[in-house]
Specification:
This protein is mainly α and about 180 residues long. Helices cover about 50% and strands about 5% of the residues. A two-stranded antiparallel sheet has the order 1-2.
Length: about 180
């Protein structure tokens, strides 16, 4: 009998930013906190569990959220902010939601490694840049995004999806909190 491949528990502790942190430290701190929250929500589950939906009418899974946030990291920091090429991590022209569509061979280990690489690229893209600095890429209408706006949006993106992750994790094994 084979044992399912259970993902190791994350050892990274989440640290909330200091109450008196500077604006930059606060934004970076909350983004890191939410990044690690997602990783903790996925830790300790099998690939099969991470691919499980909680609602029959939804394709939302923990593995899909992990993959989606790889896409989001790349899009906002690398593509929009510094003007990198518009290449999806998982999505394609044929399947723009490829982050949520995966096969039996797709694993959390790969998704986690990809996400960590995209987070590292995002950190490099923002390093040494001012919060008021504007993006190379623009919104509809030609307006540029400030780095401050991107950090704030990313915190919102993770917070929203971590709420989804809470519900998914509870439906999988009853784990709540953290």
């Amino acid at each position: 009998m084979t044992t399912p491949d259970v993902q190791p528990a994350e050892t990274t502790d989440r640290t909330e930013p200091a109450l008196d942190a500077t604006e930059r430290a606060m934004l970076e701190g909350w983004l890191e906190y939410h990044r690690e929250t997602l990783a903790q929500k996925c830790a300790g589950l099998t690939d099969e569990q991470l691919k499980r939906t909680a609602v029959p009418t939804s394709a939302l899974t923990l593995l899909g959220l992990q993959r989606h946030l790889s896409e989001v990291e790349r899009w906002w920091f690398v593509t929009v902010f510094v003007g990198g090429t518009d290449e999806g991590v998982y999505g394609t022209d044929e399947d723009p939601d490829g982050d949520f569509h995966f096969g039996p061979g797709d694993t959390y280990a790969e998704a986690l490694a990809t996400w960590r690489a995209e987070v590292a690229a995002a950190r490099r893209a923002a390093a040494g840049r001012g919060l008021d600095e504007l993006s190379v890429g623009t919104a509809r209408g030609g307006r540029h995004f400030s780095l401050r706006w991107i950090y704030t949006h990313m915190i919102e993106e993770y917070a929203r999806h971590n709420g989804h992750a809470d519900l998914l994790r509870e439906a999988i094994d009853g784990t709540t909190g953290a």
